[in-house]
Known about the structure:
By secondary structure, the chain is an alpha/beta fold. It has helices at about 5-35, 60-75, 115-130, 145-150, 170-180, 195-200, 205-220, 230-235, 240-250, 275-285, 285-290, 300-305, 345-355, 370-375; strands at about 45, 50, 85-90, 135, 160-165, 185-190, 225-230, 255-260, 295-300, 320, 325-330, 335-340.
Amino acid sequence: MRRAWSLPQALRLRWFLLRRGLDSSCTFVDVLYRIYLNHNKIIHVRDGHPVYSLSTPALFSGPAAHFIARTLYRGIQNRNLPNLMSIAVTDGCNARCGHCSFYDAVEEPGRPLLSLEQLRQVIGEAQQLGVSIINLVGGEPLLRPDLAAVIAAVDKSLSTVLLFTNGWHLAARARELRRAGLDSVYVSLDGADASSHDQRRGTPGLFDRALEGLQAARREGLSVGISTTLTPEDWAAGELARRVELARRVGAHELLVFDALPSGRLQHRDDLVDQGDWVEAMVRSADRWNADPRYPGVVFSAYITSHRSVGCACGTSYFYLSPYGDVMSCDFNHAIFGNVLEQPLWQVWERLSRDPDFAQAKWGGCKVKDSGSLQRPGVQPGRSRPVPPLSV
């Protein structure tokens, strides 16, 4: 049907869009990030693009366009597509953290790691599926000598690349990784001072090395953040405020807070299951910092996985790849759905995303903290599940 517009009406519409389009776009962006992050503060400008969180593509960048386009196709195809993946590039680490979700759960000493060529292949397959955010994790990823080549394998017009590290080797490698195409780095700090942090991570001197690495990464133009894990005991002791102040003092752009999960070395912590009151209080307490431009953005995994944001996205828009090629729903739920050395990634994703337990996002928060999820046969943290047959 042809538009029944007169020429004056058409001109009036164009004039309206010209005058109001910018304001409308800004309002849309503000609302978008406020829902996702619980704030709408620009925390950094990287390569000319505004950054609201290290965990999202910079606004108006190629990866942001890729994310939006894939969201459209997700609706057209009426199926789940991944937009975020974490790749464990090594199983080695120079720290022994008491809350680690990798060791004693995913680690299989002596099992061959994915080679550089195998990583290139799976990264390409992931980007073809729609992944626009790639997290590089471990173990400690900076122990991998060819990490810069892994980063260089990513098509930067499609995906932003983010590194999670304990920071020990970051100062020495920040420039190399930036030149390879790294966009952002989270340095893990689990104490506001050297004594408490180094004790928790079992590595004397790690706190000072981590801060040195964070500063080096910032000088190279990377978006830099602090990733931290808090227990109920930490929250009660006022640790969040101390870590926020640390992040502000050292110039971090963001503080990413994980509430401790009953996974990996903490899988015995039954008190972390179905206990959300302290987490909710912690999330609400950050409003004052997020409203203050002098402070970094303070974001919580618990908020993002709640009903107010995207919910627990493991298996719906996110997956984790072990250093051996096993595909799991996330870093903390260690059920295995296939291996990329045995099947194309899209087939493994098909199996994972069609599983009844993962076919839709869980708005109630992280599945690992939900007793209903923990009681499902074969999905307990630290245990694998039989791989079901694939029918497509």
